[in-house]
Write a structure and sequence with these properties.
- The chain is an alpha/beta fold.
- The chain has a single domain (about 5-255), classed as Vaccinia Virus protein VP39 (Rossmann fold, 3-Layer(aba) Sandwich).
- Helices cover about 40% and strands about 25% of the residues.
- It has 11 helices and 7 strands.
- It has a 7-stranded mixed sheet with strand order 3-2-1-4-5-7-6.
- It is globular.
- The structure holds S-adenosylmethionine (SAM).
């Protein structure tokens, strides 16, 4: 279950890539804009503010996230839909399909990306940002903690390869169907504050599914073991800051 409060503990560094993605979209006056995996709606609001005359629709399959989105954006004309992206179809061809930090939760990108491109109007844009830190300690230490613990065999099915592929993979997927392709990767040096901030960061996203799968009584020990490993990988600086480099993959694909 998604927890908007935990996710938004780091609202600012999570928002920055959403802004950077939006800045690269060149469409001036789209009529239909869909935000896939819109979450708590703070990014959808930014889309509504940029394209004031467009029909803006936020789609997410978490009722908890959508509740927050509705409450925070009641003053804006945004339609919210509780639906899985896997089953979603636009009511009409989309001028913009935007998705920040959500598509890595869906499998089979080989099928998903061409399918989303198919839903665009002529010259429509698919704009996607996905975290790509799955091979870094923030994520591999979740698996190491799990493997060395007493519940390894029961939870092993949750350990899987990175859901995000290389830039070349996405280029190859759309090379024949996109008229314009812009793909890039960025590593943000995130400067975090507080106690065990990297654990708090992943607890709002990737770690959540592992904690949910554990018995409640086993969670504190798992969290502490994971946090101890993280402190070695991301030691606090003298002033207490923790440096957390975080890699992200972006693409803006025009039909
Ligand atoms: C990390 S949050 C990002 C939220 C928002 N886009 C942002 O940038 O703040 C990921 C969101 O994707 C949603 N999500 C994950 N898998 C989904 C699916 N299959 N269908 C719809 N939403 C999904 C989650 O419920 C969550 O709200």
């Amino acid at each position: 279950m998604w927890n908007p409060e935990q996710y938004l503990k780091f609202a600012q560094p999570r928002f920055r890539p959403a802004q950077d993605l939006l800045a690269r979209i060149e469409i001036d006056s789209p009529q239909t804009v869909y935000d896939l995996g819109c979450g708590a709606g703070n990014v959808t609001r930014m889309l509504a503010q940029r394209w004031r005359d467009a029909k803006i629709v936020g789609i997410d399959d978490s009722e908890e996230m959508l509740q927050q989105a509705r409450a925070e954006n009641a003053h804006l004309d945004i339609t919210w839909k509780c639906q899985s992206i896997a089953e979603w179809l636009p009511d009409e061809p989309a001028d913009v399909i935007y998705s920040n930090a959500a598509l890595h939760w869906l499998p089979d990108h080989q099928t998903l990306f061409p399918r989303l491109m198919d839903m665009l109007s002529k010259n429509g844009v698919l704009a996607v940002q996905m975290p790509n830190n799955f091979n870094e300690p923030s994520h591999t230490l979740i698996w190491e903690t799990l493997k060395s613990g007493p519940r390894a065999s029961r939870l092993e099915h949750l350990i899987r390869p990175s859901p995000v592929h290389s830039a070349q993979f996405y280029y190859d997927l759309v090379a024949k169907i996109a008229s314009k392709i812009d793909i890039w990767e960025t590593t943000y040096l995130q400067i975090l504050r507080g106690i065990d901030p990297v654990k708090e960061w992943t607890k709002g996203t990737w770690l959540k599914q592992f904690l949910d799968a554990l018995e409640e009584a086993d969670r504190p020990e798992f969290e502490e073991d994971y946090a101890r490993r993280l402190r070695e990988a991301y030691p606090p600086q003298e002033n207490g800051d923790t440096l957390f480099p975080f890699r992200r993959l972006f693409m803006v694909l025009q039909k």
